[in-house]
Amino acid sequence: MKLTYEPVIGLEIHGELLTNSKMFCGCSADYGSAPEPNTNICPTCTGLPGAMPVVNKKATELAALVGLALNCSINKHNTFARKNYYYPDLPKGYQISQYELPIAEKGWLDVSPSSPALPPVGEGSNSPLPMGEGLGVRVRVRRVHIEEDTAKLAHEKNYALVDFNRAGVPLLEIVSEPDIRTVEAALDYATKVRAILRYLGVNSGDMEKGVLRFEANISVRPVGSDEFRTRTEIKNLNSFRALVRASQYEIERQIKLYEAGETVIQETLGWDDARGVTTSQRSKEEAHDYRYFPEPDLPPLQLSDAWIESIRSQLPELPEAKTARFISDFGLTPSDARFLTSDLALADYFERVVAKSKSSAKTVHSWLAGELMRYLNDSGTDIKDLTLDPATFAQLIDMVTDKTIGASAGKTVLTELLTKGGDPAQIVKEKNLAQLTDVSAIQELVTKILDDNPKEVDEYNAGKETLFQWFMGQVARATKGKADPNVAKELMVKGLEERRK
Q1: Which listed site, 163, 307, 380, 461, has its alpha carbon 20 to 30 Å from 425?
Q2: How many CA atoms lie within 13 A of 219 on its CB side?
């Protein structure tokens, strides 16, 4: 009997914190704006002898905020440690991180176990863990800890260039337990963590800039088993697409190894996106390989209950809570609500349009998810940079709802507003886009179309019902899309029926 397998996945998410200065020195954390490589540096972030680190207070606050958002317990006593390893992008020869006592631990996040957007992985089942209070699988968050980012390497043919401008930037690592059983759930977990970080304003979420990176720890086991087999770690996945493709490939690779009677080697892997394969980088390290020991130059952080509660008071309405509210208050479907709340700026814009519109929230969602998103995607514009005032957008939507203009004309007006600005009513007047609602005028036009096309009328009445859309197209063409489609359809059905007799 052939075994079926399921994946066992744990994710490590590394996110740079949006602070003005680096984690342990006063250098600017905005390394992207540095004029030249190795100019935004000091003795501390380049690891020169005798330099003493000082903890960034703001980074500590942001880390605690993330921990609370992920339902973690905050450790009032937490410490820093030296993580020892050598690599050219690590100026001190060790990284200041947290090990035994991180700032936050033992949290959770509920995710969807599967999604129709992705194909099934191998022959494994979802094997969901116990449900949380929300709909989905509860993924436990093992720890949230603070550390410093490394320098950047630029690899040339026979050498590498090191830029220390990024070295020492505050970095947050969020480590899940191996509770994830599908690639779909891994994607949902990563997507939700990114959304939370953006809602909190602690990370921009711009993965193409490298400020948010994923590492997937993957193993596979027979369905029904509770063993934890040898795992591999895929490093530095900087997009959701890379996370999905790399995880799917690695799961299939391990299944094939077991089915061939071979074993999986514990190792660290890279992802070759162009070839679509994982590649071996080095043997997988364990904690003892890093020779962790307490950072002698930094005292433990002592956090009071009052300080923790002051951070908790800064928590905004998070994506899951906002999604639930959009469903209950606006009558949106879960998928429509999740789309809107996936981005805080989009959710805020939606609410501002709804507040100014007489149309239903579902209608507003339809315009945002359709025509507005099409424009943003085609133009490469971020919703935060949108110049179209919500009240103006609401006015346009209401003009379509109350049939002042048709849907086609509404799209024309929206394009004008997005590219040139202006007033919807004035644009409608200047372009003569007002909807034709005069029943007698539309009736006259329908009669003329039917009289001028007896062959098509006979074919329709003989059973070629697809011609109905052709007749409606003639109405739209004759009126330049301004005829009320519902009135035109009713009159066209009636006219064709009369000619059937």
Answers
A1: 380
A2: 18
